[in-house]
Amino acid sequence: MRKGFLIAAGTMAAFATVVLPAHAAERVTLSNGFTVDCHHHAPVDDRVRLYLSAGEDNFIEMVPDQIVSVESVPDPPPTLVADAPPAAGNANPNANLSPADLAEMLARAGHAHNLDVDLLASLVKAESGGNARAVSRAGAKGLMQLMPRTASDLGVADSFKPEQNVRGGSTYLDWLLTRYHENLAMALAAYNAGPAAVDKYHGIPPYHETKVYVASVIHEFNRRVAAREKQAKRSLASALPDGAGR
Questions:
Q1: Known catalytic residue at 127
Q2: How far apart, in whole angstroms, are the C-alpha atoms of residue 59 and residue 151?
Q3: Of 68-77, 136-145, 162-171, where does mean pLDDT reach its minimum?
Q4: Does the CA dihedral 229-235-240-241 come out positive or negative?
Q5: Which of 71, 127, 220, 229 is catalytic?
Q6: Class (C level, CATH) for 6-72
Q7: Domain spans of the chain?
Q8: CATH number of the domain at 99-237, out of 3.40.50.10280, 1.10.10.60, 1.10.530.10, 1.20.58.100?
Q9: CA quadruple 77, 233, 112, 54: dihedral positive or negative?
Q10: Which tens digit of pLDDT belongs to each residue from 93-109?
Q11: Model pTM above 0.70
């Protein structure tokens, strides 16, 4: 599984005041006037890492001169990210797609492309809210909102068929992560706005929709990973004999 997704410092101006971590503990003021909230920070060699969650895998790396000040802040109130609305005229569009079916599809796609299943689930939530018949104003379709040209290039004959859509969307995300050297933020920005826009601006495009999209997917991914790790610790603790590990 891919590890240590890095949000490059060069993309930070695009986020401006968008808060990435689920539970911010510090607010960092940058020399360009922007602020970013993070869970904690630490010096690493000649850089400073701003960690977006309690773990060590998701961080922004800065040079010290870019940081003006760091202050402690209370946890922000939870931010609700609205799911994509269902496509008009499609009552009960997922009648034949259960959560277990979707989870199985995502697991197969994650295994095939070396992608974390929680990342794929976070992207599906942001794209369609799990609505297999969702259609965007721009014409993107299905669970992972594939544009017709992209779907055709990926060999997806029917974007409304969940199995095909998930396979195509996962293949596309895999390709974007490879193209942007495992930089998750840039890959997600390209998924939303297109690689041409990311290449034009040499980072996340200055589009409000794209900035919010990238932040919401990373936020949901962090939340899912934290919940998964918490559950794993509980399972391990319950499996140990009484008093073991003390």
A1: yes
A2: 32
A3: 68-77
A4: positive
A5: 127
A6: mainly beta
A7: 6-72, 99-237
A8: 1.10.530.10
A9: positive
A10: 454 688 899 999 999 99
A11: no
